[in-house]
Amino acid sequence: MAYTIDLTGKKGIVFGVANHRSIAWAIAQALDEAGMQLAITYQNDRLKENVVKLAPTLHQPPLLLQCDVTDEANVQQTFSSVREQFGELATLVHSVAFANRDDISGEFLKTGWDGYRLALQVSAYSLLPLVRHATPLMEAKGGSVVAMTFQASTRVFPGYNVMGTAKAALEHEVRQLAYELGPKNIRLNAISAGPLDTLAARGIHGFVDMKKEHADRAPLRRNITHREVATTALFLASDLASGVTGEIVHVDAGYSVMGM
Ligand code: NAD
């Protein structure tokens, strides 16, 4: 029996494309190659141009929508458009995170409430409203939600600070929602990726050293690629992963299994 992933006729929405380096873009490409019709969202006008340029490179023209995940009215509007255009959803990709630069450098002890709230709101809380709106579009046939996380959720990565707190919250949400939405056959999983060069990664102090450390210490003795994250997301979105939910899948060349 041949195992192939054919998502022809399925609809998906991807949050978090800022440019061609975004993990969300790599995932969008993989889903598109498998035949899925996509809606792609971008955060604001500043990023629109990048996404508009990327869109025609997909096999099927995506629905492009502006969505700031902290703006409930905007989120609602986004899903209204998806309901009108697609009528249903099989996949939602949450590849969104933000923290003020001051809050991912220096002392974690000094993190103020506003910075803490913002980091948690964008990077963790936002999964809830997105999934809340996606659920009615998924429940007839079941669905798959994939979020992006990092090992700083469970270990100390100096410089990650409040983003580690946000990833811990996000991973818990994945498990909690997997439990709540399991009866509707909606699966939620997160990919814990090794370091990849992206816009968000550029803001992390010591990122270049971190990449080198991963390549030196990981069992595969190298860094991962965007494509490796994207194909894992494709697997999680597909029926090949029909029994997988609430899971944090590491795509990190094995780095997280090492002690010393
Ligand atoms: P990226 O900068 O390309 O993507 C982050 C996205 O978040 C951007 O598209 C940005 O517009 C979006 N965003 C921020 N605030 C938003 C808001 N208020 N509303 C809507 N969108 C908003 O960087 P990336 O590395 O591709 O990050 C994607 C995800 O992958 C993040 O969750 C990140 O923490 C995670 N991750 C990244 C790495 C890495 O090394 N790059 C490793 C593990 C996990």
Description:
This protein has 260 residues and is an alpha/beta fold. It has a single domain (11-254), classed as Rossmann fold, CATH 3.40.50. Helices cover 42% and strands 15% of the residues. The protein is built from nine helices and seven strands. It has a seven-stranded parallel sheet, sandwiched between helices. Strand 2, helix 2 (45-54) and strand 3 form a beta-alpha-beta unit. Helix 1 (23-33) crosses helix 9, helix 3 (72-86) runs parallel beside helix 5 (127-138) and helix 4 packs parallel to helix 6. The model has no long low-confidence stretch (mean pLDDT 97). Nicotinamide-adenine-dinucleotide (NAD) is lined by residues 16-18, 22-24, 43, 47, 67-70, 95-98, 122, 148-150, 193, 195-196, 198-201.
Q: What is the secondary structure topology, with strand pairs?
A:
Elements: E1 11-15, H1 23-33, E2 37-42, H2 45-54, E3 63-66, H3 72-86, E4 91-94, H4 113-125, H5 127-138, E5 143-149, H6 162-181, E6 186-193, H7 199-202, H8 207-217, H9 226-237, E7 248-251
Parallel strand pairs: 1-2, 1-4, 2-3, 4-5, 5-6, 6-7
Helix pairs in contact: 1-9, 3-5, 4-6
The site of nicotinamide-adenine-dinucleotide (NAD) has 27 residues, from helix 1, strand 5 and helix 7.
Mean pLDDT: 97
> Span between N and C termini?
41 Å
How many DSSP helices?
A: 9
State the helical fraction: 40-55%
Ligand types:
nicotinamide-adenine-dinucleotide
* Structural class label: alpha/beta
CATH superfamily, called what? Answer: NAD(P)-binding Rossmann-like Domain
Count of DSSP strands = 7
Q: Based on CA inertia axes, which overall geometry fits?
A: globular
Number of domains: 1
| Rg, Å, rounded | 17 Å
Strand order of the largest sheet: 3-2-1-4-5-6-7
Determine the CATH topology.
Rossmann fold
**Annotated CATH architecture:** 3-Layer(aba) Sandwich
Question: How much of the sequence is in beta strands?
Answer: 5-15%
Give, in order, the helices and strands. Answer: EHEHEHEHHEHEHHHE
CATH class: Alpha Beta
